[in-house]
Amino acid sequence: MIVLACVFCVAVGSESSEDDLSPQDKLQSTSKGLSDFCVKNIKQAAFGRKEIEIAQQEMPALMILRKRAGGEKPLAGAKVVGCTHITAQTAVLIETLAALGAQCRWAACNIFSTQNAVAAALAEAEISVFAWKGESEEDFWWCIDRCIDPDNWQPDLILDDGGDLTHLMCKKYPHLFKNIRGIVEESVTGIYRLYQLSKTGKLCVPAMNVNDSVTKQKFDNLYCCKESILDGLKRTTDVMFGGKQVVVCGYGEVGKGCCTALKGLGAVVYITEVDPICALQAWYEKKKLLSAKSNKNVITREHFNRMKNGCIVCNMGHSNTEIDLSSLRTAELKWQRVRPHVDHVIWPEGKRVVLLAEGRLLNLCCSTVPSVVLSVSATTQALALIELYNAPQGRYQKDIYLLPKKMDEYVASLHLPMFEAHLTELTDDQASYLGISKHGPFKPNYYR
Question: Where along the chain is substrate bound (predicted)?
Answer without folding.
Answer: 87, 161, 186, 216, 220
